[in-house]
């Protein structure tokens, strides 16, 4: 028969462990859960092997993740665009503009030279907005070591190609590379301040997801794992568009009932699209689905929500975009999403409706005002709340 310890294999996939746990007798289930907990608490200790990270993009999220690694004394090199920014980080251990009130650990360096950042990197974190990622990655591709895994943090859908980061990485850096997609409610400032944050690392390689969980995890940054890359990427992209709608609801002063209804229906649209693209339903109820949607729709730090608030208060889109130094990914993604929905509907010969996503796109195009968008949502024919997908 199977030896009692066989249910726990360090590095084994959470999925296979889950399957085996479900079938195991009670005593073995308890023993396995204890062993799993021991494994998780080991992840808080210093690593037993040397690693070095390259972080692509010196914006607030790249800095925030660098700060997590820096607190674990892991060497990190951040690739930035401007020489004066690199010099400032190396001299003062803080970014001159982003999160400039937060000191970075001495193990964090910055450079403008891709070869310097990428040479000898054991892991690469990609933190450049989706719309700029293809060009950025094409430019640095010759310097990206062949087998180094990439952890993408960018949330959105590329204009024109309708690609998400998995395809952009494949098309720019080639096949046969392990990749992972980090997502969930994770505002850069809160992470950099050491506030408790939980995210999910999705990868087709369960070994990579587990490694990220061990290496990046600490007592305030908890990394769950998943193999559902599509679900995690779609959740991260759609929540930014729903957050723009939630911001408009706030800006219009519509109240809590309206906000709760809007966000719930937004999650419903997110789930329907994700399922039609092959995601697992449970992913969309997790951190990268409703979790990130709640965080972004209700959190005052969200750039997407704040864009919506300003639109709802009557400000012009050009003014809002012109006054921001950081990217609200939901703006471009709203247009890509509508095209992706139309493509998916055509492929399945059906007419699934996504009134919130379409409404945000039309408001961003100037075809409706936020108040008209809401009026149109209320005028839609009433139907069953949940469709069988
Ligand atoms: N900021 C957050 O709280 C947060 C949290 C989770 C995920 N994300 C995601 O991470 C990604 C990066 O977010 P961020 O807040 O750091 O973004 P950001 O707008 O600050 O930009 C990040 C960096 O990307 C690079 N960059 C920007 N425009 C570029 C261009 N045209 N060409 C080349 N490089 C360019 C720059 O180094 C810039 O500092 C986004 O997709 C975002 O959705 C952000
Ligand atoms: O500031 P936002 O709206 O880009 O959101 C940041 C993160 O994605 C929140 O998880």
From TrEMBL:
Q: Where in the cell is it found?
A: Glycosome
Say if the entry is tagged with keyword Nuclease.
no
Query: Where is the Glycerol-3-phosphate dehydrogenase NAD-dependent N-terminal domain positioned along the sequence?
Result: 54-208
| Catalytic activity, EC | 1.1.1.8
Say which domain of life the source belongs to. Eukaryota
Residues annotated as binding substrate: 155, 303-304
HAMAP family the record matches: NAD_Glyc3P_dehydrog
**Family, per the entry?**
Belongs to the NAD-dependent glycerol-3-phosphate dehydrogenase family.
What is the recorded name of this protein? Glycerol-3-phosphate dehydrogenase [NAD(+)]
Question: What is the protein's species of origin?
Answer: Nannochloropsis salina CCMP1776
